[in-house]
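Re: that chain you flagged

S.,

Sorry for the slow reply, it's been a week of failed gels. I finally had a moment to sit down with the sequence you sent. For the record, here it is as I used it:
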Amino acid sequence: QVQLVESGGGLVQPGGSLRLSCAASGFIFSMATMGWYRQAPGKQRELVATITNGRNTNYADSVKGRFTISRDNAKNTVYLQMNGLKPEDTAVYYCQTSVFWGRGTQVTVSS
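Prediction finished late last night. Pasting the structure tokens below so you have them in one place:
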């Protein structure tokens, strides 16, 4: 079955960096479009970034220039490099493909 397991979240100060990873299994990873979403308390889940099997990327306006999505097909893993983190980036970050979701990893940006 499809499994998506996120890791790499944590507490970071404003301006800091984190790299999230999502280990995928149960499907042909190299053919899949992968996405990162986030949900802050009291808010709807929102798109952060996507990457296609051709490595075309798309970003939410709020993270453009700060976040980078990438993939390693040999490792069945998608990454989200987050730089210049702001308190408003605090959320649970989810990995997604098609109708499948991971359980999420908490990112907290606070001094």
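What I noticed first: The chain has no helices and eleven strands.

Talk soon,
D.
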